[in-house]
Amino acid sequence: MTQVSYQLYCSRNFPPLTDTCKMLAETGYREVEGYGGLLDDLDGLKAALDQNGLRMTSCHVGLDMIESNPQMLLDLAGSVGLEKVFVPYLAAEDRPVDSEGWRAYATRVVAAGKPLRDASLGFGWHNHDFEFIKTGQGDRPEDLLAEAGLALELDLGWVARAGLDPVDMIKNYGDKIIAAHIKDLAPAGENADEDGWADVGHGVQNWGAIHAALQDVGCTHYVVEHDNPKDHARFAARSLATVQSF
């Protein structure tokens, strides 16, 4: 059975969190994915989830926080239902410049996740598009991260933005994909006020083929996301309806 979740980052511009969680529950969601900024108020986060019958089954957490306080994340597994943790981003100024640098960075990320993996939590990397730009040695950083032993939360919107076919990438990474960001792109030139993203099923992604490919590799954790919706309730409702139609 496929888990369907909502990345709370989509609603960062629509506070408060309690209202967002109420909207999501009323729309039909039962799971959400958190992000690092929400971890500054764990009591408020837990209250908003509990009041609306939601579980935070995955979370984006910066590498520094994982390295400095893995116990906080282990505690979240018991309090909010956390099952998977993903490192979500690497700032441009911190990105390695060659394959050797990426391999070293991947080793660091793998080591940071050991306490989480030891506690049977899923742990891995969430991509944007820069991970698909080949190094001077001809390697894709995403490949090097996966080869180091990291699981992947494959963001299919950013895969497409990188000029790659999401279905091909799903087949390429196979069972390394333990979650997927279900994200759609607007037709070229449209939705400029939403950074060119679209509600799931209202853009250009071939969801029939993508869903089939994800199921073939055993990925059953879908997280809907839109980086900048004008109306998060509209996005949440239309995207859930699309995913439920798969």
TrEMBL record:
Entry keyword Iron:
no
Q: Which keywords does UniProt give here?
A: Isomerase
Q: Which GO terms describe its molecular function?
A: isomerase activity
Q: Domain Xylose isomerase-like TIM barrel spans what residues? A: 23-238
Q: Which InterPro entries match?
A: IolE/XylAMocC-like (IPR050312), Xyl_isomerase-like_sf (IPR036237), Xyl_isomerase-like_TIM-brl (IPR013022)
Q: Which domain of life is it from?
A: Bacteria
Q: Which SUPFAM superfamilies match?
A: Xylose isomerase-like (SSF51658)
Keyword Transmembrane in annotation? no
Pfam families for this protein: AP_endonuc_2 (PF01261)
In terms of PANTHER family, this protein maps to:
HYDROXYPYRUVATE ISOMERASE, INOSOSE DEHYDRATASE
Q: What is this protein called?
A: Sugar phosphate isomerase/epimerase
**Origin species:** Cognatiyoonia koreensis
